[in-house]
Amino acid sequence: MKVLPLTLGAHLPAEHWDKIDRNFYFCPTRGCEVVYFNNRSGVYFTRAEVKTRVGIKEEAEPKPLCYCNRVTEEMLRRAILEEGCCSSIEEVQSRTGAGRGRWCVVTNPSGRCCEWYLKDIIREMLAGAEHRGGAKRSGSMRRVVLEIGGMTCPGCAGVVQAALESAGAGEVRVSFREGRAEALLGEGAEVEELLRAVREAGYRARVV
Where does residue 204 rank: exposed (0-12), middle (13-18), buried (19+ CB within 10 A)? Predict the structure, then answer.
């Protein structure tokens, strides 16, 4: 997963800032100690060198999931398994705020919304709580293309991507140069939610 210099600067100590460029990637492999790597320059940063606790690579709590809204795996487990709060992914997210932030490009070490792994974790917990009926989701998806106004740098594209992902969009691709965003939207999800998320992040948006 490629990461922006903005993300790296937020999670690496200042002593490493001089090594940051646009060729770094985030390693999502759970058992791997490496968090960021740049094969071009041969620079690698491990968990011990990163300031932020990388939840997906941790075995012990606290394991951060949603960095924007400060939700840990233990908080989800307590809400789903102990309190029996919810029967669907959407209800869990509404109750806990997980996956509903919009500053993921800065707060999350991966530089993107936690939904790329969050929903699998919620789904497993719901199954364990025997709420399987509510955990089933439709596989019907539609492609949405948006024209985005107000982006002035690649970092803006990262903010727009995080905003769209927080609104429930999947496989989001944002082009700063083209001023466009593409995403997949699940059945029942509203395009207006995507437009609202982008506008709340400070940019203009319309459906192409």
Answer: middle
Structure tokens at 2: 């490629």
**Residue 91: CB atoms within 10 Å:** 17
How many domains are there within the chain? 3
CATH label of the domain that carries residue 153: 3.30.70.100
Residues 181 and 202 in one domain: yes
For the chain, 208 residues long, give each residue's pLDDT as a single digit of tens. 999 999 999 999 999 999 999 999 999 998 899 999 999 999 999 999 999 999 989 888 889 999 999 999 989 888 887 788 888 888 888 888 898 888 999 999 999 999 888 888 888 888 877 533 433 344 567 889 999 999 988 889 889 988 898 888 877 889 888 899 998 887 667 899 899 999 999 999 999 8
